User: Which sequence fits this backbone?
């Protein structure tokens, strides 16, 4: 069955929200998509008719097995295109999200299969997020947020959860990317900010909010 661009955007957004909570509310989805709750309600009825979501009274809704499978296909396409744009076309990692948002709706299985082969089956996208395989399986990456790392520890950046251009531009300014090694020098109890040291760069201080969006593994 084919789905509209709007339906696919809703399915993917529900999937991402479900990574934070078991069920999704109409208001949380409206905020995610920057639309009105009434519009969300109308779309959810369509997705229910197509048997992609389940509704639990007073709790919210969630994707069923079919909906989850479709969501993983969309996520797979998006992350493969991001990898292609950065690694083959030379885009900066903060410039690819919106382009991949358009390309993810090109749903030709043959195209995505050939793209995966051409890219040599990458497991993570340029932001460190795992790319689902053809069966929808995702490799679980063992990592902690930078905010959880104690002082004097050396770590390597493995992923970034906030993909906004503003966030990625700031990290680029501080010479921080996937695979970057850094040392946590100090944590400040006052506001949760931390001082970090990246290679030959001068130490810098990042906020707790930023640190919570950067994920690392031990060097």
Assistant:
């Amino acid at each position: 069955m084919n789905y509209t661009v709007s339906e696919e955007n809703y399915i993917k957004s529900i999937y991402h929200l479900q990574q934070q909570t078991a069920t999704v509310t109409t208001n949380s989805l409206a905020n995610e998509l920057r639309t009105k709750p009434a519009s969300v309600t109308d779309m959810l009825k369509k997705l229910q008719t197509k048997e992609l979501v389940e509704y639990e009274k007073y709790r919210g809704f969630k994707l069923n097995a079919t909906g989850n499978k479709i969501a993983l296909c969309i996520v797979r396409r998006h992350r493969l295109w991001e990898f292609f744009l950065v690694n083959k076309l030379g885009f900066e990692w903060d410039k690819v999200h919106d382009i991949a948002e358009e390309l993810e709706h090109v749903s030709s299985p043959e195209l995505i299969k050939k793209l995966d082969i051409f890219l040599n089956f990458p497991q993570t996208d340029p932001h460190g997020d795992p790319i689902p395989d053809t069966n929808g399986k995702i490799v679980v990456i063992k990592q902690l947020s930078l905010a959880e790392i104690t002082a004097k520890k050396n770590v390597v950046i493995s992923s970034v959860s906030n993909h906004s251009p503003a966030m990625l531009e700031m990290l680029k300014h501080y010479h921080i990317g996937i695979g970057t090694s850094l040392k946590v020098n100090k944590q400040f109890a006052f506001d949760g900010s931390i001082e970090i040291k990246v290679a030959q760069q001068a130490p810098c201080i990042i906020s707790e909010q930023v640190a919570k969006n950067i994920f690392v593994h031990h060097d």
User: Anything to note?
Assistant: The chain has eight helices and eight strands. The first strand starts at residue 53 and ends at 56. The longest helix spans residues 65-87. The mean pLDDT is 93.
